[in-house]
Amino acid sequence: MNLHEYQGKEILNSFGVRIQRGIVAQTADEAVAAAKKLTEDTGTGWHVIKAQVHAGGRGKGGGVKLAKNLDQVKEIAGQIIGMDLVTPQTSAEGKRVHQVLVAEDVYYPGDSETSEFYMSVLLNRATGKNMIMYSTEGGMDIEEVAEKTPHLIFTEEIDPATGLLPFQTRKIAFNLGLSGKAFKEMTKFVAALYTAYVESDSSLFEINPVLKTSDDLIMAVDAKVTIDDNALYRRKDYASMRDLREENEIEVEANALGLNYVDLDGNVGCMVNGAGLAMATMDLIKMSGGEPANFLDVGGTADAKRVEEAFRIILKDPNVKAILINIFGGIVRCDRVAQGVVDAYKNMGDAINVPIIVRLQGTNADIAKELIDNSGLDVLSATAFKEAADKVKAVLA
Ligand code: GDP
Ligand code: MN
Prior knowledge:
Layout: H1 5-14, E1 22-25, H2 28-41, E2 47-51, E3 64-67, H3 70-80, E4 84-85, E5 95-96, E6 100-104, E7 115-124, E8 129-135, H4 142-148, E9 153-158, H5 166-175, H6 180-199, E10 202-212, E11 218-220, E12 224-227, H7 236-239, H8 249-256, E13 260-263, E14 268-272, H9 275-287, E15 294-297, H10 304-315, E16 322-329, H11 334-348, E17 356-362, H12 365-373, E18 379-382, H13 385-396
Parallel strand pairs: 14-16, 16-17, 17-18
Antiparallel strand pairs: 1-6, 2-3, 2-6, 4-5, 7-8, 7-10, 8-9, 10-11, 10-12, 13-15
The structure holds guanosine-5'-diphosphate and manganese (II) ion.
Guanosine-5'-diphosphate binds next to β2, β3 and β10.
């Protein structure tokens, strides 16, 4: 589950990670009130107004702007709230901004003593250990740094038996070129960040930039936090941070039905049982000249109700030109699935407006094929993988 920057920062702060302070606002007036409050508390009187959407590169798209007085806060917040923010990480239509984070300016204008670093915490799947990735080249596109100057990216792996050790936090601060107070602050920052990562059941922290202020404080200016979905059952406080407006509508609906669905860009809908077979089916569709419109694992039960739900989800995607059903009958019998397909089809009537190719393999596959062939419905049956691919190709032509 992805979080907004302001939510990620709340979590960091709760574990003692220093953050750029801010208050979230839904309207321009709320933004002004937030700015006033921040100025009272500390503040230089300058504020940065930041669009809260689940996408990076907001600065480049005009979603992060500096306001030098309250009039500007009102004006900029008014512009950003309600806009469709386009960044290198969104689609061309952009993402609608519903709220902004009003944060205190921590760059102390005209001051050249600030530096921006990059830092992330994630699992290295190759070694099975958490690692901290960091770089002196903060504030910019880390993918570009990785491509052009990979020697400026460092990694530090953490042994799960010992946790992050003090010599490692010192090494990180040293590699970032820090000394004196900033060095000490960085070691504290890294230690707190790593504890926060582990304790919050996160699967990704990306802090870009980590800022060294002119008075040598180290703080998170941005925060991309992803909580491991599998941990949400014991993280009710975080689960309520989910913002469904930021997620793909069809995926949300499918997941609510217990369907494992991922929306893709192609034209062939897939209905499959088992993740491995679903992946193979996507390859098959590519080989036949199509592009998968989705990944869909219907799971163990494929009765009429389930098949109908899956049909309805797949057909919500207007790009779908054909549907390939590829089910292996191991525990579930193929003839029952075939009956499910026929019943669902009859039930849905005109709602099904694209050709359907069904491949059922496994227990009672022959009975299933007969059932499909004799149904009188516009459904093509196949037994072999290749045959199914050819039929998909034929209907797309
Ligand atoms: P992103 O573009 O989505 O990654 O959003 P960030 O939160 O990283 O902000 C983009 C850029 O805005 C940062 O790299 C900073 O250079 C700048 N920025 C963020 N906060 C402040 C601030 O308080 N003052 C100033 N002057 N610039 C800021
Ligand atoms: Mn950033």
